[in-house]
């Protein structure tokens, strides 16, 4: 496979290209699904009737909706010709007779205008027969409410090793969920054309699956449904499974009315209806040797799956496969299960369970370090994987040495040692503000755990004028996949970037595609695009060889020209060769295919080698905590991250920075609050809008943000030596959480373990600071100094 | 119904819309889909557009506002520019060029809004190269101008870099040249459709007359609150009267005994007009929502709703502000401390509007505004506290503390004030008073914060104020 990683001279990959749509983005010319919809004449608007009960049998009277002027049709279960289900597990009825969560869409109203559809939905009468519900994971555990298959990853003898450990820690870690908050909410536009074909434009990461669901709901073959994903206004995993049902509703409406149907959720509908990052409840026990080496980890991870299974099983699988993060843990027993609760059905979100798994081990290390008396950075470094070691699920940790190399480079370049001293000096002179500095690593497995998804297709056309059009199965959600694919095609065909054009992602161009997910879309689609381009280039080389009078193996494609080795006097343009090839009846288009080699995975045993390689990185974050309020400021972030040899450095930097800040939001700010009372609003999401659910804004941007790509990092098994970048950087944000922990710790006595809520909101941080101060005060009383808090106000002055 | 029209990107476009239709909906209907709906409540800025507003020298300034919150009827006779009007893919505007080059767009959905917010600051007439500060670029670009725009992809760094790389508008820049001419005047408007009516009277007399005759009318200025109710809660008010362009409500005067601020001045105008004249407001205003909101929001609106969590009230209570209430019968002055009567209720009669806010002079010597929220930019307070203390020869001679978020109305912390007045300004006093302050109000637990946290934050606000005052006194040699 080494030829996959080889780059020709002067490749277009590796250049810093702007996003291919940047000019369209900035001028508002870039179209998104609902922009297309508002320009589609005669389109009806769909509006949901949402359950106000968390769990209830419902009966729906739609007749009053038809009294509302402009209401055209109300879609109900009786209208479904095929399968009344929005998912692939067949546990997500589109028109439920039993509302499973507050916000659950029961029926849909189609109106001539949005106002008519909205008023029609308001007129629908729903009667509820309330059933018992589980809102919190604790309630689900108490009620034994689970779904899907529980899994265990085990190695060695965790119980015995625990018993032999010098230090044993135990605890419960609660990991919060996260709303995707893609700026573009879920949107679909369905048209039934004159040939009986459904053309569904959809903001989806997984067009082929959207197509399959639309087909099974309508009971038509997949060949009659075409799904196009032009571009998405963000997705982050939230459009991997969630769009299917909405697309199906729009298509069903188009079938029944013969008119185009647009469905776009408003923000509140989107937040209350669609799945989020899984909250996890983790009970753990960890054993360490006297010198701080982890001996054993025993944990039960309960993922809050919400009302249906969705992607909870693979999310749990990835969580279990990432509890090790970057650390060698000889004895492991981690059990995972999925709670069934009456909430939105939690789903894919950047990292896909990986972040929750890593949360566990980083929390363990962060809590244990002060008690072990080992500097947290040293504790982490000491436990890194070494070359030749295997993960708990049996995979060799390829290039394990990179962890230490990256770590040491980052420590050096971020001036970590000197800054530790500065932080300590600041803390010694400030009673009401403390700083913390922490460094954490990331090791993230790349490939879909489900092996079948590790394939991709592409369709490349070279027209006889030499222009090139590429299609591939991946979707563009802002990550720059299309730009990278243009760079791959230009490299493979020896063209300049602007000579290649890309067509929107459609299921009638490339069939049976995988979701654009798991960070692997460049790896997979890049392989397919390269394959297609190389087929064409090979055929063109034969033509050019005859024209240039050289052996076809000595033909070179570069910069839009075709030359023969040693024949510097003569060069042809790519277009001239294409024209000649056409006249010689040579096929100028090709379908490309790629499958990732060498993967195997046994989901029952949770053993195998599911990942092609690991992405590595490390981040050092410095924060300041305000002791009066618990508010934090991120003062400085330094990152060294391994993207292999970058396909497109500016895009990769964008993924790293954006991922970090999104992770920072998850860990410090974004908070989903549900009504857990027994009142009438039970199960209702309380943070259901932008004014109550806060994601990072400009004020959360790190004041100083230095990101470097790990250099000379060729990955042999991937397209042009690159590595995946979409998800891994999100987990670099653990360094911020650990820095906050360090700063909170500085309010208390040394050697004290700091527990920190997640998300570490100002309030959570404040209570952690209060706990630290209380211990300090106790310690002071024991030491006979009862004026311990005298520094409360005045110490701020000392540093001024 | 009168014919109404709006000039969009230099072209006059007739408007066919309901009384409640937002500018965003209308723009998208006429094919300008660059502006997006991201939240429909003025939080994300994806719908930002530029509005030609009067500046303080008889010219025009381009102000970025949330199109989702403004009824299009309110724009009758006005000029707006959208991302499409700034530039095209073939001919990018400088802000668009910098955004594109710097990697400032990923998914691109928020980008047209960012371009408009950046253009507001790009065209700010007093923007000039300056010493780069914590939130200011070397080109004088204030990062706060982007505080109302959310991006979920980039982490903001490339957007900041794009903003800080902007130069000055070129000599032939049409939007820059437009600033020299007056902004469009307010146009009398009466739109009746969609079951509602939107009226813009052009004189105060007319407005007060309507208010007298139509007691159910809803007054609106920037529509930053009403817009949310319309979009998110389906409110369709039968009659809306727009008053934000009435000249009598747009005064700003600094006298010897009083500062009068027109109730319909936008908060951005107040911010510029007062500069640092009132330190407490200078602390408050940058923390008040976002620039996009401040470009429309007014003191009149913030106090008119009598919301317990509006950020203006705690500061104005500490300043002992008075409200001038006007009706057809004349004017009366009410102390803000006596204005609020209950949850979203006040002494303002249905036939009255708030014409101005008066702040008595001299100002107190020690002032502070403390806002507790999850986010520093663009968030709603869980607790807000305004302080105004006079300290004479080490003794506190007067104390006014305004609180928001801890009761059904904004309120004064009278018990704490009583403890402070007459006591020495020292740690012991502050500690004791902070305990009292912690027990003021009746805070509740909700999705923003717990009651316990809110109480602690009240007490700590005073400790923090004292700490900051002490630091300041040490930093500036006497």
Automatic annotation (TrEMBL), chain A:
SMART domains: Ald_Xan_dh_C (SM01008). The keyword Coiled coil does not apply. Signal peptide: none annotated. It comes from the Bacteria. Its cofactor is Mo-molybdopterin cytosine dinucleotide; [2Fe-2S] cluster; Mo-molybdopterin; FAD. Its EC number is 1.17.1.4. InterPro entries: Ald_Oxase/Xan_DH_a/b, Ald_Oxase/Xan_DH_a/b_sf, Ald_Oxase/xanthine_DH-like, AldOxase/xan_DH_MoCoBD1, AldOxase/xan_DH_MoCoBD2, AldOxase/xan_DH_Mopterin-bd_sf, Xanthine_DH_Mopterin-bd_su. Residues 506-527 are annotated as: Disordered. Residues 27-132 form the Aldehyde oxidase/xanthine dehydrogenase a/b hammerhead domain. Keywords: 2Fe-2S, Iron, Iron-sulfur, Metal-binding, Oxidoreductase. It holds the Pfam family MoCoBD_1. The keyword Oxidoreductase applies. One of its GO terms (molecular function) is xanthine dehydrogenase activity. Residues 513-522 have a biased composition (Low complexity). Belongs to the xanthine dehydrogenase family. This is Xanthine dehydrogenase large subunit. It comes from Agromyces hippuratus. The lineage of its organism: Bacteria, Bacillati, Actinomycetota, Actinomycetes, Micrococcales.
Automatic annotation (TrEMBL), chain B:
The keyword Flavoprotein applies. Coiled coil: none annotated. It comes from Agromyces hippuratus. One of its GO terms (molecular function) is 2 iron, 2 sulfur cluster binding. Its EC number is 1.17.1.4. It comes from the Bacteria. The keyword rRNA-binding does not apply. It is an enzyme of class 1 (oxidoreductase). PROSITE patterns: 2FE2S_FER_1, 2FE2S_FER_2, FAD_PCMH. This is Xanthine dehydrogenase small subunit. Gene3D superfamilies: 3.10.20.30, 3.30.465.10, [2Fe-2S]-binding domain, CO dehydrogenase flavoprotein, C-terminal domain, Uridine Diphospho-n-acetylenolpyruvylglucosamine Reductase, domain 2. Pfam families: CO_deh_flav_C, FAD_binding_5, Fer2, Fer2_2. Residues 191-364 form the FAD-binding PCMH-type domain. Residues 2-86 form the 2Fe-2S ferredoxin-type domain. Keywords: FAD, Flavoprotein, Iron, Metal-binding, Oxidoreductase.
